[in-house]
Write a structure and sequence with these properties.
It contains 11 helices and 9 strands. The protein is α+β, with helices and mostly antiparallel strands. The longest helix has 19 residues. The two termini are 36 Å apart.
C-alpha cells in the first residue's frame, strides 16, 4: 500500500455573498453554497445543539478535527490520469461493479458515463448532485473524495465495441489460492469510490447507483476502510488487518520509471488509443484467515512476511526502507529472510522488474457462524500491463508463498481504466464516441 501522509490543512473559504449567476454550486436555504458554508464552519468550529445542552454533548464527536484539515481537502476530476490512483490511501472506500441492463448498448452506456462523470465532478468539488441529492454529505467538505471508472471484458461485447477491447483485458489465469465467487467477480463496469469521511463516500455511492437508472444494475458491491489520515503521530506506511505494514515497496511517483510501470503511454503502446494515460486495475477480495494467523507467535509471523511487525524493517536488518539482504544468513547458516517469505517473493528484482501500485482497503463483513471474522483486504493494484504486473507476481506467489495458507482469494476482477477526462469530456468518451 502507498505510504500514508497527513493532508495539508487548507484555509477555509471566506464567507462572501453568493453570485446568483453561478448555477454549478449547491446553495443552502440561507443562500450560501455548500463549500462556503463549510468555510464558515471550519473557521468557527462546530457547535451541535448548543441550546439543547445534553443533546449537543451526546451528538458531538469528541475532539472533532476541524473541517479545515480533512473535510476541505479536494481532489481534481479533470486530470491526466483518473483520480483515485496516485492519491494517498483514503479512510473509507466502496468498490462496485455494474452490468448493463438487457437491451442497453453503446448509446445507453455513453449517456450513463456522461451522467456519472458529471456527478463525480460535482461531488469531488464539494457540490451537491445535480438531481435528487440526498443531503447525506450536506455539512461535509470534499474530504478527498475520488471516483474512478473502468470497463470490464464483457462491456465490449455488450456495446458492439469488440474491436476496441484491449488484449490486456483477457481473463486472468487461475491461481491455486483462488476460491472465487463468480457472482462477486468481474462486471461490465467498475466504480471505485474513496474519501476520508464515511458519509461523503456513501453519498457518492448512492448518487452513482441512482444515476445508473434503468441502464445498468449493481452486480456486486464491497465496502472497505483504512486508517484515517492524521491518526498517527507522523506519516507512516499503513497496516493491514494482520497488523503488518503493507506498502513499503510500492512504486512512487517520484521514481523515473513510475509512469512506464503504472500508466499506458499516450503513444506507441500496443493498447488502443482510447487507453492513453489509463491503467489496468486488478481487484481481488482476499480473505485473511485471522484466527489461524493470530495463533502464530510474533517471530513466526515475521518469518512468514520477512519483515519486522513493529516497524516494517527487513529481517536482514536496518529500517523500513533499507534494502533487503537476500543472502544474509544466521549463526546456523540459515537464510535470515526465509526463501518463501512473502516480502522476498514479491520483490520486483525477483520478478523480472514486475511492479504494481497497490492501493487497497481493508474490509470486515461480520462474523461467521463458527465465530471466524469475515475480514481481509480489498486488494486493488494498478499497472500498465496486468500480465507483466499482477499475473507475473501472483504466479510466483502460487509456487510457494508462506502467506498463502493464511489467505483466500474469494473474488476477482480486471478492468481497463481510461485516462482522465479533459474539460468538457466524460470518462470513456474517446472509446464510446470513436
Amino acid at each position: 500500500m502507498p505510504d500514508q501522509s497527513i493532508p495539508e490543512a487548507r484555509t477555509p473559504e471566506t464567507h462572501t455573498p453568493v453570485d446568483e449567476g453561478t448555477p454549478s454550486e449547491s446553495r443552502s436555504p440561507e443562500g450560501l453554497t455548500r463549500r462556503k458554508l463549510l468555510g464558515t464552519a471550519g473557521a468557527t468550529g462546530l457547535v451541535l445543539g448548543a441550546a439543547g445542552g445534553a443533546v449537543g454533548y451526546a451528538t458531538a464527536p469528541s475532539q472533532a478535527t476541524p473541517l479545515s484539515s480533512i473535510g476541505a481537502d479536494e481532489a481534481m476530476f479533470h486530470v491526466k490520469h483518473q483520480p483515485g490512483i496516485t492519491q494517498g490511501l483514503q479512510a473509507r472506500g466502496h468498490l462496485v461493479a455494474f452490468d448493463l441492463a438487457a437491451g442497453a448498448g453503446r448509446k445507453e452506456a455513453a449517456a450513463l458515463l456522461r451522467r456519472w462523470s458529471e456527478t463525480a465532478r460535482r461531488l469531488m468539488a464539494g457540490e451537491a448532485a445535480a438531481n435528487g441529492d440526498t443531503d447525506v454529505a450536506r455539512d461535509a467538505g470534499p474530504s478527498s473524495l475520488t471516483v474512478t471508472f473502468g470497463f470490464g471484458n464483457s462491456f465490449f461485447a455488450r456495446t458492439g465495441l469488440e474491436k476496441q477491447r484491449p488484449v490486456a483485458l483477457d481473463p486472468l489465469p487461475d491461481f491455486s489460492s483462488d476460491h472465487l465467487d463468480k457472482a462477486r467477480s468481474n462486471g461490465d463496469l467498475w466504480v471505485q469510490i474513496g474519501a476520508n469521511d464515511a458519509l461523503v463516500a456513501f453519498h457518492a455511492l448512492r448518487a452513482i447507483q441512482k444515476d445508473a437508472g434503468s441502464a445498468a444494475k449493481v452486480r456486486w458491491q464491497m465496502n472497505g476502510f483504512n486508517r484515517t489520515p492524521g491518526a498517527t503521530a507522523h506519516p507512516m506506511t499503513a497496516r493491514n488487518l494482520m497488523g503488518q505494514m503493507d506498502g513499503t515497496r510500492n512504486p512512487k511517483p517520484t521514481e523515473s520509471d513510475f509512469d512506464q510501470r503504472i500508466f499506458v503511454p499516450a503513444s506507441g503502446a500496443k493498447d488502443p488509443a482510447w487507453m492513453a494515460n489509463g491503467s489496468y486495475a486488478v481487484v481481488r477480495r482476499i480473505r485473511m484467515l485471522l484466527d489461524d494467523w493470530e495463533r502464530l507467535s510474533l517471530k513466526a509471523q515475521e518469518q512468514v512476511i520477512g519483515r519486522k511487525k513493529s516497524d516494517g524493517a527487513p529481517l536482514s536488518g536496518g529500517g523500513e526502507t533499507t534494502a533487503m539482504d537476500l543472502e544474509k544468513t544466521d549463526a546456523h547458516g540459515d537464510l535470515v529472510v526465509p526463501i518463501n517469505a512473502h516480502a522476498r517473493i514479491t520483490r520486483p528484482d525477483q520478478n523480472g522488474g514486475a511492479a504494481m501500485l497497490r492501493r487497497p482497503f481493508s474490509y470486515h463483513d461480520g462474523i461467521d457462524p463458527d465465530g471466524a471474522p469475515d475480514a481481509g483486504l480489498l486488494f486493488v493494484c494498478w499497472q500498465a500491463d496486468p500480465l507483466r504486473g499482477f499475473v507475473t507476481v501472483q504466479r510466483k506467489l502460487d509456487r510457494g508463498d508462506a502467506l498463502s495458507k493464511y489467505i483466500r482469494h474469494e473474488s476477482s476482477g480486471l478492468f481497463a481504466v481510461p485516462g482522465g477526462a479533459a474539460e468538457g469530456e466524460y470518462v470513456g468518451q474517446r472509446l464510446l464516441e470513436a
